[in-house]
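for the writeup, i need someone to sanity check this before i put it in the appendix. the sequnce is what the collaborator sent (i think, or maybe the updated version? ugh). structure was predicted straight from it, no edits. if anything looks off just tell me and ill rerun, i have time this weekend
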Amino acid sequence: MIKLCSITRLRDNLGKFVHDADYHQDRFLILKNGREVAGLVPVRDVKLLDNATNRSMDYKAYQVAEELMRWRIIKEGMERFEPRG
């Protein structure tokens, strides 16, 4: 469960919040003037998010390469059938 925390409260009690994130695996959504601006999460969550982002980027690169390969095959096929003149 994500807990809400104002930026002022976080500033005044940073050590407690970091301890709770580290030892209790708590997650905090930080609010500034009532607006969500950041989060404080255990380092494990940051690593998981980073790994997921990297895998997603790798998959996107694979998809783009696959699409470019398809277009190259189509272009080569069209060039073979173009009338020469």
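Helices lie at 7-12, 14-23, 43-81. The radius of gyration is 25 Å.
thx in advance!!
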